[in-house]
Specification:
The chain is of the alpha+beta class and 147 residues long. The chain has 5 helices and 5 strands.
């Protein structure tokens, strides 16, 4: 009986002490630090993509135009917006790369830029954990210009 009680006490002590030793709660054991970009990088939300297009429109005097969002199945990873009604600039369709935050004018296949857009892109890229090196590696052309 005494041996059984000692064995049970030893087993309980093992289950109480083992987790703290394994998971870094005892002295001298530190959790492993991982790269934040490797574990936490994520794509933009549709709301963030919308904000990028609106930032560009604001800087070009087109902020009074609405944006309808749509997707094109042949181009996963892009969110598309259509300006409504058609603005006089002729910029109607805006593909946004959800991995990088790049905004395109699909007509002439040109990457769009403006002061507000650049500032917001930088803030969003930081928020989603996209480093400059990763940006260079995963960047891609406007989806309608690939073919």
């Amino acid at each position: 009986m005494l041996a059984s009680l000692q064995m049970r006490s030893w087993t309980i002590a093992l289950f109480v002490m083992l987790p703290s030793a394994l998971f870094g709660q005892s002295q001298g054991v530190q959790p492993i630090k991982t790269s934040s970009s490797a574990t936490s990088r994520r794509d933009l939300t549709v709301k963030q993509a919308h904000a990028l297009v609106k930032a560009f429109q604001r800087d070009h005097g087109e902020d009074g135009y609405g944006l309808d969002q749509y997707e094109v199945k042949d181009y996963p990873g892009f969110q598309f917006f259509q300006a409504v009604p058609d603005p006089p600039s002729g910029r109607i369709h805006y593909p946004v790369d959800l991995r990088t935050g790049e905004v395109w004018d699909e007509g002439p296949c040109e990457k769009l830029t403006s002061p507000s857009l650049k500032k917001l892109q930088s803030a969003i890229r930081k928020r989603i954990g996209l480093t400059a090196d990763e940006y260079r590696k995963i960047g891609r052309p406007c989806p309608f210009c690939e073919k």
